[in-house]
């Protein structure tokens, strides 16, 4: 389903990183913008398309480095939770926003007097995800400061690659089917422009819910005609409920996983996810298990 | 280029203590170019630059004091709301033209450093009220010292005759806190200095100070039986006390009337009072008893977690499972990595036991009572 093998990705990016490092060393100042990333972009959904549009199935966790606690939490999650007024206008956090739908506007903000690059700002249409990426070297806020959906981001150039670190995130998610992130998560991104194409690589680490870093990529294409719009949101009573109601599934709820596995004829244990399910050799492991269970050869 | 370099754009009021700087959120050239600067993001940046962490205490400016010197003198356009994070929890301070309100006093052992920190923050501003959100030593221990560091606004027919009332700040809490600290409700009496001198016994109490309405809401049987929410209405900040803890599960003090359902009801009350900003961010800010401040979205997350765990334990108890069986089933397993603890003053085991006591079927309560 388009899952990126983290090891393969790291290997693929290593030569580019070396070139980028050499280019950075040659620059008189690392704060200089090596390339203009600014523009209006539309997301390209070739990668992981079903997960992104229309969206993941409930119970679809395969290929993700989730731990048992997150699996349990996601099983308890019910889509009805999104109907309570306090959750209707929540935007995607920066840990998911570039993966979701919605056009992207990315632009530089420079100091009027010095023309130094102060920050990038970016805005994604869906729920008006607005974000700042500080380029002026200001420190990260301490952990005890306020946390936000987009977090606090700092960027620097490694050659032509904009590298962004993000902390101070609110509790968010990595997939919109209940796979949560804790507020201890942090993210590293790389923005790479190739002509009209913007590649975005992001890596999320969460000591609470992920056993390994989650690495994924997104692609955007420049728009000839900017197409951005406002996204106002006001909560409404979608489902009358007693005050304080929190829709959720029972403890150890397996129906979503089992339904998804049945629909796509997949083993339940693969659907349950985990770091090992992202690797190609997992297919061999599954085949071996199946063969062992039936008492025959895996081939 | 940074916000710090542009603070002189606003007329600063000297003499309010070095830490109480005036803030102009939209003062940077960079920010001025942005037509939709996210307010909370900007505030996060401000806290990063102006928050102060020294010794045991950290000062987190939630609503920086803004005062402008005009033709008619100094005008306060925004009261200051500061959180002082200490080793045993948070104190919250409202600062305005009439003085300061301090919510929660922290432990007696830490009082000297807290008072010093407050003096640095307040400068010549006088503490008028000391309020305790419950009767724990972490909220009441240093109340006497804080009270004596202040001075009430006092007068009328008694002016000059009852001098002790004017020589210290008003010291308040819910009535059940006084009952607990004075020994009326069965505990050994605490140091008399911690006893509040004024109490309220109703669902709500309020007064007006610093051109701002301040409301106190009793939260029945939550962390204890004497919890209060404090709502600074114009500043749009709620002090939640110990029903919200961003470090751990809520401490439910069964001995002093606490219950999981009271905690969840209290959090629902907070959510009812808060009005979030655009895209469920910012707007009303909330101060937990321990940990970092947040907004409605983070209180919702905590409320949802507690509701789910409560429902699981109740479901197990209704099916006849014993407390030990319920603990073995790990009903908070998916949240323990963030909020759980196996050692220290409040463990996951203690939390599960406390929740169980609040939801177990009546027949088991009766059995326990016998």
Quick take:
The complex is a heterodimer of chains A (299) and B (370). Chain A is α+β, with helices and mostly antiparallel strands and 299 residues long. Chain A contains 7 helices and 11 strands.
List keywords for this structure.
heterodimer, A: 299 residues, alpha+beta, Lipocalin, nine-stranded mixed barrel, 7 helices, disordered N terminus, B: 370 residues, 13 helices, 16 strands, 32% helix
N- to C-terminal distance of chain A: 23 Å
**Second CATH tier, the architecture of chain A:** Beta Barrel
The end-to-end distance of chain B, rounded to whole angstroms, is: 71 Å
Report the C-alpha radius of gyration of chain A, rounded.
21 Å
Globular, elongated, flat, extended or rod-shaped: what is the shape of chain B? globular
Q: What proportion of the residues of chain A is helical, as a percent range? A: 10-25%
Uncertain spans of chain A, ≥5 residues at pLDDT below 50?
Answer: 1-30
Low-confidence stretches of chain B: 1-38
Shape label of chain A: globular
Q: From the helix content, strand content and strand pairing of chain B, which structural class follows? A: alpha+beta
As laid out across the biggest beta sheet of chain B, the strand order is 1-2-5-6-7-8-9-10
Fold and architecture overview:
The complex is a heterodimer of chains A (about 300) and B (about 375). By secondary structure, chain A is of the alpha+beta class. Chain A has one domain: Calycin beta-barrel core domain (Lipocalin). Chain A has seven helices and eleven strands. Chain A has helices at about 5-25, 50, 70-75, 85-90, 255-265, 270, 280-295; strands at about 40-45, 105-110, 115-125, 130-135, 150-160, 160-165, 170-175, 180, 185-195, 195-205, 215-220. The radius of gyration of chain A is 21 Å and the shape is globular. The two termini of chain A are about 25 Å apart. The model of chain A is unreliable at about 1-30 (pLDDT under 50). Chain B is α+β, with helices and mostly antiparallel strands and about 375 residues long. Chain B has 13 helices and 16 strands. In chain B, helix 8 runs antiparallel to helix 9 and helix 9 packs across helix 12. The radius of gyration of chain B is 22 Å and the shape is globular. Mean pLDDT of chain B is about 85; it is low at about 1-40. At the A-B interface, helix 3, strand 3 and strand 4 of A face helix 1, helix 2, helix 8, strand 16 and helix 9 of B.
């Amino acid at each position: 389903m388009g899952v990126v093998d983290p090891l393969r990705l790291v290997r693929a990016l290593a030569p580019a990183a070396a070139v980028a490092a050499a280019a950075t060393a040659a620059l008189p100042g690392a704060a200089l913008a090596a390339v203009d990333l600014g523009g209006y972009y539309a997301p390209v959904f070739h990668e992981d398309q079903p997960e992104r549009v229309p969206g993941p199935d409930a119970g679809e966790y395969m290929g993700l480095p989730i731990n048992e606690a997150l699996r349990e939490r996601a099983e308890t999650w019910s889509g009805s939770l999104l109907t309570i007024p306090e959750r209707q206008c929540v935007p995607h956090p920066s840990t998911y926003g570039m993966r979701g739908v919605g056009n992207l506007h990315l632009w530089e903000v420079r100091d009027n007097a010095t023309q130094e690059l102060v920050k990038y700002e970016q805005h994604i249409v869906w729920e008006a995800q607005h974000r700042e990426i500080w380029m002026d070297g200001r420190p990260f806020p301490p952990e005890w400061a306020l946390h936000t959906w987009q977090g606090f981001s700092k960027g620097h150039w490694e050659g032509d690659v904009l590298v962004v670190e993000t902390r101070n995130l609110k509790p968010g998610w990595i997939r919109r089917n209940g796979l949560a992130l804790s507020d201890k998560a942090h993210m590293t991104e790389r923005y790479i422009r190739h002509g009209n194409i913007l590649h975005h690589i992001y890596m999320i680490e969460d000591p609470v819910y992920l056993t390994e870093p989650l690495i994924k990529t997104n692609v955007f294409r420049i728009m000839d005609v900017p197409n951005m719009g406002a996204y106002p949101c006001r909560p409404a009573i979608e489902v009358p409920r007693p005050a304080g109601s929190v829709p959720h599934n029972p403890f150890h709820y397996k129906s979503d996983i089992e339904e998804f596995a049945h629909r796509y004829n997949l083993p339940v244990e693969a659907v349950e996810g985990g770091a090992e399910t992202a690797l190609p050799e997992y297919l061999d492991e599954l085949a071996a298990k199946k063969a062992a269970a039936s008492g025959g050869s895996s081939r | 280029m940074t916000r710090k370099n542009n603070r002189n754009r606003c007329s600063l009021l000297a003499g309010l203590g070095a830490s109480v700087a005036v803030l102009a959120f939209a003062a940077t050239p960079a920010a001025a170019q942005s037509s939709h600067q996210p307010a909370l993001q900007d505030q996060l940046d401000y806290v990063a630059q102006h928050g102060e962490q020294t010794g045991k205490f950290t000062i987190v400016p939630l609503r920086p004091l803004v005062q402008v010197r005009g033709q008619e003198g100094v005008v306060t356009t925004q009261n200051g709301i500061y959180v002082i994070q200490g080793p045993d929890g948070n104190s919250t301070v409202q600062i305005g033209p009439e003085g300061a309100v301090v919510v929660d006093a922290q432990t007696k052992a830490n009082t000297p450093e807290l008072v010093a920190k407050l003096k640095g923050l307040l400068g010549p501003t006088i503490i008028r009220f000391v309020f305790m959100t419950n009767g724990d030593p972490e909220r009441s221990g240093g109340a006497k010292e804080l009270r004596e560091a202040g001075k009430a606004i006092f007068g009328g027919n008694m002016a000059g005759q009852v001098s002790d009332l004017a020589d210290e700040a008003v010291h308040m809490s819910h009535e059940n806190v006084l009952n607990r600290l004075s020994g009326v409700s069965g505990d050994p009496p605490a140091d008399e200095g911690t006893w509040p001198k004024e109490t309220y016994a109703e669902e709500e109490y309020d007064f007006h100070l610093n051109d701002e309405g301040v409301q106190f809401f009793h939260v029945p049987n939550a962390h204890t039986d004497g919890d209060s929410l404090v709502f600074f209405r114009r500043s749009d900040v709620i002090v939640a006390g110990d029903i919200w803890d961003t470090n751990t599960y809520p401490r439910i003090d069964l001995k002093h009337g606490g219950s999981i359902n009271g905690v969840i009801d209290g959090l629902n009350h907070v959510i009812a009072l808060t009005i979030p900003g655009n895209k469920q961010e910012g707007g009303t800010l909330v101060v937990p008893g321990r940990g970092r401040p947040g907004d409605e979205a983070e209180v919702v997350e905590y409320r949802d977690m507690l509701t789910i765990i409560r429902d699981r334990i109740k479901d197990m108890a209704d099916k006849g499972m014993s407390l030990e069986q319920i603990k073995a089933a790990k009903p908070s397993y998916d949240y323990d990595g963030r909020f759980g603890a196996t050692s220290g003053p409040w463990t996951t085991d203690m939390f599960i036991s406390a929740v169980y006591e609040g939801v177990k079927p009546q027949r088991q309560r009766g059995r326990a009572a016998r």
